[in-house]
Amino acid sequence: MKKFLLGCCISLLFFSCGKEATPDLDSGQKDQLVSKTEINQHIRTIMDRDGIYDWKHAPDAILYSAAMQSDSIFAIGYRTAVTDDLEKNIHLIDINSPKWMDTRNEILDIILKNEQKLNSETTLLDLLPYGYPEDLPSMEVRITNPTTISILREMDEIRYLESISYVLAPDNAIERSSSGCGAGPNYNLNSADYTTITPGTKRSWHHATSNLPSAWNNTTGSGVTVAIIDTGLSDNQDNLGSQFNSGYSSGRFVQRYSTKYSGAWWWKSLDPPHDQCGHGTQMAGLATAPRSNDGNAVGVAYNSNLIGIRAVEDVFISSGNEKRGVRDALILAGNRGDVKVISMSLGTPFSSGTVKDGVYYAYNRGKMILAAAGTSFSWSSGFGVIFPATMSQTVAVTGVKDSNTMIKCDVCHSGSKVDFVMVMQRSVSTSRNALTLVPANSNQPTYVSGSSAATASVAGIAALIYASHPGASRSQVFDAMKVQANFYPGKNSNFGWGIIDANDAVNMSF
Questions:
Q1: By the 8 A CB rule, do 129 and 73 touch?
Q2: May I ask the CATH class of domain 204-506?
Q3: Which ranges in 373-412 belong to alpha helices (H)?
Q4: Which of 25, 177, 276, 452 is the most buried (most CB within 10 A)?
Q5: Short-list 85, 52, 8, 29, CA closest to 396
């Protein structure tokens, strides 16, 4: 997975590309600022205690300072005074109804009046870099008056108030930006790591560890759409394009979308759906690559439909644009009746109300949302399960080695929030992992590992179960996965229900 985690060297962790410049502040505002060193120490302390950082723990001065030392933009989630069970009903809210508009306008009026104390010419348009909310009761607002923070946090109507773009800067941004991206064809694949099957495709060795070859005798995923929320799909890889229907894969579709914007205000622009990292292409390949005749790697659900949504620049959800991108991707997938499975091989150690709202929305629409437990790289150390895999609405997945005992893969995270695992790595070698497509127009696959790869593979298994049980509910499919996993009826403290037997799961009666 591309960007993740921290641990004892958390200061290496967070990086945000293309952030807005720190706003100009007057002397009075500058006197209110807490130093970045103090902010970072506060964040480390909470993470050491809780694992995930939530801005609700920040004192007013730290929350204000974090925003002022990034882009001065705050994410605000709001509710009406009579809102009940918003998490369960967020998909039903009409934010343009009078009661919701009144609440929104009350909040904006408070912010505007306080901003005008600093600059009398400030207007609402100056405070809304991304415009008014369209779908959910949340908005991004520019706030520079520290008094506003304490006022808003006292209001019952405020669900969350967060600095949307503050991150801890790494010492080596080049290393961070390359993690998880740019994989090319591997011409040194170990012959023991794949089996050539008809009509001429490579079946990754890790498929057998979940009994997938037998499951394919029952279903190959037809009629189910899998949404991959990631870095997009490559325009060059023809197995996600003109050859998506080839060999034993037919009658299905692949579609590309983008919810990732760059910039704000008048320079805001929607990024193209083309994968410029490579991670999204690899994950889509693991889940749905065709069973073609070109010698490439086949996916788990090789007859399922695919929609690839570019929501992030890489798999660490850091900037405000990426958080909005993930939220909007979840709304997009949530609103599609054909989508049954959403796979997110991305995350962050920062909790985000913006992302949570998207998860609630898609979950309430009945989608099964799988999220990666976390993957470490050379610039990060071991850590627990990351957000949003920590949410109860997501299915957390990590990777393990092909060992007689359950051992996590070298770069994988584990913990009590994990629901399932997938074998991803050979015990004898850290470099021999699952096989998947590459972004280039090549029929030579490559190795990929981590909880990212495990998540996309388990998403494929979920698609197979949905396809073998048309009309099944999310809870029925999850129960099939759980009951047919190797730890059931117990649950392991680090690896959840364990490895799913895909064949038993697709053949289970319910």
A1: yes
A2: alpha beta
A3: none
A4: 452
A5: 52
